[in-house]
Amino acid sequence: MENITFADFQKMDLRVAEIKTAELVEGADKLYKLTVDLGSEVRTLIAGIKLFYPLDELPGKKVIILANLEPKTIRGVESHGMVLCAHTEDRSQLVCSALDKDIPAGSKVS
Question: Which UniProt keywords apply (predicted)?
Fold first, then answer.
């Protein structure tokens, strides 16, 4: 594992986001299109969590996202961030970041 400096870590804007909607991405086996609330704005993200989370369980769930990741178009949808998840080495298990207490959407993670 490569180390990064504290200054590099400080560049990452990690935020609590509440998933408002989740949709299938046409032709994608692993992707969902998520609309997330960051408190001050609503964004669209693409997340590769379809094999691990049923679509109907996602709205209302709070996750941690990397909010200042450069936008990228995936399957024709521009994604503005990344949901942070943990996975096993063989990727047979995946768990999105969870919060043990309620905190407002948009809260900064440090």
Answer: Aminoacyl-tRNA synthetase, ATP-binding, Cytoplasm, Ligase, Nucleotide-binding, Protein biosynthesis, RNA-binding, tRNA-binding
Report pLDDT digits (tens) over 33-55: 999 999 999 999 999 999 999 99
Residue boundaries of the structural domains of the chain: 6-105
Sign of the dihedral through C-alpha 43, 47, 52, 55: positive
Residue 85 near residue 30 (C-beta atoms within 8 A): no
Q: Among candidates 91, 106, 14, which has minimal Cα distance to 48? A: 91
Q: Judge whether 53 and 96 are in contact, CB under 8 Å.
A: yes
pTM, 2 dp = 0.92
